[in-house]
Amino acid sequence: MLAPGIPARSVVPSTTDQPQPIWHPSPNFGPRRDGLKPSLIVLHFTAMSKAATAIERLCDPAAEVSAHYLIGGNGRLWQLVREEDRAWHAGAGEWHGKDDINSRSIGIELDNRGDHPFSELQMSKLEQLLKDIMGRWSIASEGLIGHSDMAPGRKFDPGSRFDWQRLERQGFAACRGCDDGPQNAQPDLFRALARDAGFTADVDDETLLASVRLRYRPWAKGPLEPADFTPLGHTALWT
Predict the structure, then answer these.
(1) Bridge partners of 69?
(2) Model confidence pLDDT, tens digit, residues 170-204
(3) Is-contact 70 114, C-beta < 8 A?
(4) Catalytic residue numbers?
(5) In the chain, which end has fewer C-beta atoms inside a 10 angstrom radius, N or C?
C-alpha cells in the first residue's frame, strides 16, 4: 500500500547496485528542475534522539522535508527518495555560486544529535554509499559538502564531531591545503579564497569564518588567523 501522495514512479528504488538500503518511501519529493542531475552530495545530521524519529519526520507530508538516504548509528541504511528525484533537504543557500542545491544534489542524513562522535559502523556504511553514488553520477570529491557549507549561519550540520579528514584520506572529500597561512591575515583575501573553494553564500565575514572553521577547524575561536587560510589553498595564493 502506497503512502498518500507517492506517485507510482517512486514505488521502487533506483535499479542500481547499492549497499542494500531498506526502502522506506517519503512523499516529500519532486522532479529535479531544469533537467539538472546530481553533481553534489550534501551531508546532514538528524539532530534527533533516534533514527526512527528522523524517518517519521522525513516522511511526514506536513514537515515538507526529506532526504535520499538515512544512515543509522548502527550502520543501517534507509532510502527514502530515488536518486533521480529531488528530495527536500538543502533549503536556501548556494555552493560555487549555484543555488537550488536540492536539484543539484543527493542528500544523506546521519543519525546523530550533533554532540557526539559518529560511529564506526555509520562511517563505514557512509563510505560504501559514497563510493556507489559518486561512481553512478560521476561526482568528484569536490562535490561532497556539508549542509553548513552551503547554508552558513543557517545550518550547522554535519557538525564539529564529523570526521572530514577521514573522508579526505580516502578520496571522497576534497583534500585541504597544508601550507602555513599569511601572517598578515586579511578578511578580503580570506573571503576570496573561501569563494574559490565554494563558500559563495552571501554572509558577513564572521559567519563565513565560522562556516569555514566548522568544516576544517571546528575547535578554533577568536578573530581570523593565519591557520584559517591553510585549508583553503597553498602559499602561492597569499604571497
Answers:
(1) 79, 108
(2) 999 999 999 999 998 899 999 999 999 999 999 99
(3) no
(4) 109
(5) N
Give the Cβ contact number of residue 144 at 10 Å. Answer: 23
pTM over 0.85: yes
Helix (H, G, I), strand (E, B) or coil at 104: helix
Cis peptide before 158 (omega within 30 of 0): yes
Compute the CA torsion angle 16, 106, 56, 91 (nearest 10 deg): -160
How far apart, in whole angstroms, are the C-alpha atoms of residue 70 and residue 75?
10
Q: Please provide residue 5's backbone torsions phi and psi, each rounded to the nearest 5 degrees.
A: 90, 0
- Please give the span between the terminal C-alpha atoms of the chain, in angstroms, as a whole number: 63
Which tens digit of pLDDT belongs to each residue from 89-117? Answer: 999 999 999 999 999 999 999 999 999 99
Residue 79 is given by DSSP the state E
How long is the chain? 239
DSSP string, 16-60: S--S-PEE---S-EEPPGGG----EEEEEE--SS-HHHHHHHHT-
